[in-house]
Amino acid sequence: MPRPDPKYLFVDLDGTLMKTDLLYEAFVHILFHQPWSLFLMPLWLIQGKSVFKSEIFSRYKTDLTHFPLNRHVLNVIYEAKTKGEKVFLATASHHHMAKEITASLGLFDGLIASNGQENFKGAKKYTEIKRVCEDEPFAYIGDAACDIAIWKHAALAYIVNPNIILRLRLKNLATPQIVLKKERYQNRSFLKVFLKQIRLHQWSKNLLLFIPLITAHRFWDGQEWLNTVLAFFAFSLVASTIYLINDLSDLDNDRGHPSKINRPLAYGDFPIPLALILVPILFYCSWLFTSHLPNVFVYWLAAYFASNILYTFWFKKIAVIDVVFLSLLYTLRIHAGGSVSLTSISHWLLAFSTFFFFSLAFIKRYTEIANAEDKTDIRGRGYKHSDQMAIFTFGCSTSFLAILVMVLYLNSTDVKALYNNPDRVWFMMPLLLYWVTRLWLLAHRKQLDEDPVVFAMRDPVTWVVLVMLGGILLMAI
What letter would DSSP give residue 9? Predict the structure, then answer.
């Protein structure tokens, strides 16, 4: 006998309507912004889940309008509204947060949510649903095994992205079922999402570790090259660890940003619990690569990690100081590369890299401001949209100061000692001037990615310039 058409639609929130979980979101917020509250959490848990959630959400304030929603679930809600069904949000999340969501979306006729006394999950949620329905047929959208207690009484069950275990348990469910697949980030596999989350493309920045070996012309020191390769992976894994920490701590700001909202964590495609687990794993793997490297390199790696943490939680919010730290992190890689290959770093290289990376840091901030919609200020940064021309001026100036340092270096006795044909090195200058000027021109035209290093790695013109520069150096040697 077919079941009657539903008169009500009840929609779960965490992992269903939202592609994330509010409890994990609140926990991460407290972890990074109110860490002292972690010591109180065991006391809250002793008093029960309802009290725990109430305490957690009372300390969590965020803008819910940018949270990632599942479009498939939204489509079911819109369809139910056109059929005249009453739509309720039914969630185990705290009533305070759920109420804000229902108000911001304007899609729901009512709300069932946990409070300080009751945690409405599974059977308890069904009891509330039954009270609201008064035995009228209903449909329910959920995503977890605890929702089976509701689905077996429903006229129609919507299951969001069920895993293998849940699929097996649902085989014996008599209720008609409709599976709603989870939206994947730009239709990519989880592996691609994972690699994007750990910023595999950003590992290219750690090629700076090889600069001391290259500039010293130590092309045939096999052991030193092997050590530098190990150092490269150590730095890259630490960098991925820091990117995870940064994304976890900056979820709110990323969701309000025109491009950073597409990051897997902010977009809801990378689970917060998995990110929290990966942080210590990647960090530990990084230190495994340092076991056979000089101790001085380990100190530089520790300094890099500490500097990044300071930047992530404090200095990236302070205008100009953030640029100082970004340029410092680039130069620090060169120092680390010299320490692992036992290569001394010349003052010329340090002077050039300081100005050059200052310029790259400024161009990163300039493009962020230039690409901001509606001329708004950048969330989580210390800059205003009116700072755009000042930053453009600072960045261009430091770019050409780096070129000036190169000119002075080419006139020094160091070049004559290092190259058999030092005059040929001068052919590098027009190429460097062209590349730097073009980079700022593209930034001014809003044609540049917010990370100039990543842009350069994908830019065919940059690769042509690099090949030509390499050819000039070979002819000079």
Answer: E
Please calculate the CA angle 259-279-15 and round it to the nearest 5 degrees: 60
Residue with tokens 């803008």: 63
Radius of gyration over alpha carbons of the chain, in Å?
28
H runs (alpha helix) in 87-203: 95-105, 123-133, 148-151, 164-169, 190-197
C-alpha to C-alpha distance for 296 and 371, rounded to whole angstroms: 41
Sheet holding 156-160, edge to edge: 110-114, 86-94, 8-11, 138-142, 156-160, 177-180
Q: What are phi and psi of 360, to 5 degrees?
A: -65, -40
Mean per-residue pLDDT for 44-55? 87
pTM above 0.90, yes or no: no
In whole angstroms, what is the distance from residue 41 CA to residue 77 CA? 36
For residue 251, the Cα-to-chain-centroid distance in whole angstroms is: 8
- What is the rounded CA–CA span in Å between residue 320 and residue 339? 29
The CATH number of domain 188-476 is 1.10.600: yes
Distances from the Cα of 326 to the Cα of 144, 162, 319, 359, angstroms: 43, 42, 12, 10
Residue 341 has pLDDT above 70, yes or no: yes
**Residue closest to 119 by CA, chosen among 50, 68, 56:** 50
The H or E element containing residue 44 is helix 41-46
Nearest to 270 by CA among 186, 164, 378: 186
pLDDT grade, residue 380 (50/70/90)?
low
Q: What three-state secondary structure class fits 258?
A: coil
Chosen CATH of 8-183 out of 3.40.50.300, 3.40.50.1000, 3.30.1330.60, 3.90.76.10: 3.40.50.1000
Q: Where are the domains of the chain?
A: 8-183, 188-476
CB atoms within 10 A of CB 55: 21
Phi, psi (5° rounding) for residue 314?
-130, -60
Asked if 247 and 263 touch (Cβ cutoff 8 Å), the reply is yes
Question: What pLDDT sits at residue 375?
Answer: 59
Which residues have C-beta within 8 Å of that of residue 45, sequence separation ≥ 6? 52
Give the separation between CA 422 and CA 402, rounded to whole angstroms: 19
